[in-house]
Specification:
Strand content: 35-45%
Order of helices and strands: EEEHEHEE
Amino acid sequence: MNSIKRIEVDEYWADSTIIEAGDFVFVGYCMGNEGKSIQEQIDGAFSTLESRLKKAGLGLDSVVKMDCLFKNIEDLNYLSDIIKKRFAGKYPARKAFTTDFIRDGILFQVDAIAYKGK
């Protein structure tokens, strides 16, 4: 690996939400439409992910792994239809689990690993 490139850094939270390391891009803390329905939040999180990937010159089709965090695991039932719409058959490996979020209005968050390659 030649270098690690921190593309988007949040000084307040002391983290990087986009890191390019070798052939891979790591994207964290993707949320959207906070306070809205679970479907809108899942779709909004994927919009945030897509926007961050563009900063690394990539699209959703480059995502190879996702961690999907839910406030309520029952909401997992909404995920596959939205993934089918947003990823157009190029589905990443993924896992889902529950967590407590920092604010009450958050129902979903996604972290992802994308392959950049040469």
